[in-house]
Amino acid sequence: MVTSPVQIGPATLYCGDAYQIRPSLGFFDADVMDPPYLFDNSGGGTFRKSRVGADRIVAEGLDQGFDRTIINPLLCGAVAVFCHNDQLPELLPYLDGVFHRFALLMWTKPNPMPMRNRHYLPDTEPFIHAWNRGYHPIGEHHDMHRWIHANSMPTKLFDHPTVKPMAVMEKILRNVSGEAICDPFMGTGSTGVAAIRAGKRFTGIEKNPAHFATAVERLRTAWEQINDRAQAPKIEATA
Ligand SMILES: C[S@@+](CC[C@H](N)C(=O)[O-])C[C@H]1O[C@@H](n2cnc3c(N)ncnc32)[C@H](O)[C@@H]1O
């Protein structure tokens, strides 16, 4: 069952299943999504005990991947999608086949989890920006890097193990063209906060009621701050 959305200024938030709700919402300029990754989150040795986020990822199924057909080029001009390193060989050919062009970008972290499992440190998270004609990446010269450097977020901040830093989401929102943005896996609403701060319209979907409530609270606070700034008296510069 799909419950009525919560409306907060230019943001419309649905609590429910993305695979059911997203196709019914029609066309957006961009889908910006951070879906459950597909990866082996076991191991970690002596570091594991202190990494509560890793266990939360498993408990919430955020290591189980997603159905890539939620990215539908008939329903969006572009997509920005995060994934695990191991998903790139499957996801890149899919996106290359259905969009006009794509770029592979990286969020680099100075503070990766110290769990390697005989692999490299998890100090980069890839995301792919794929677009159709008319929806190519935009931004000032300095926004056009393929990387963004930011610390990862502690689980305890919003009681969610995979919150994306605002610096990362704000970079993406500067790069996607158009006004209407959808995040079908919005978690605590980071994409939405970045979207409305960038003056865009946002639609988010989250199935977990606790994370949905956090997203509602974050979007309400962000929208109040935007309105407060708009209403603050302008201080004239004196000559
Ligand atoms: C990687 S997290 C997104 C975190 C988000 N970027 C943030 O900064 O808070 C993915 C989210 O998708 C949600 N999710 C997983 N499957 C879903 C589905 N079928 N429909 C809606 N939400 C789903 C999970 O509950 C989780 O909060």
Automatic annotation (TrEMBL):
UniProt KW Cell cycle keyword: no
Enzyme Commission numbers on file: 2.1.1.-
GO MF entry, a single one: N-methyltransferase activity
Keywords: Methyltransferase, Transferase
Catalytic activity: a 2'-deoxyadenosine in DNA + S-adenosyl-L-methionine = an N(6)-methyl-2'-deoxyadenosine in DNA + S-adenosyl-L-homocysteine + H(+)
Name used for this protein in its record: Methyltransferase
Family under the similarity heading: Belongs to the N(4)/N(6)-methyltransferase family.
Source organism per UniProt: Edaphosphingomonas laterariae
Keyword Methyltransferase attributed: yes
Start and end residues of each DNA methylase N-4/N-6 domain: 111-216
GO term, biological process aspect, one: methylation
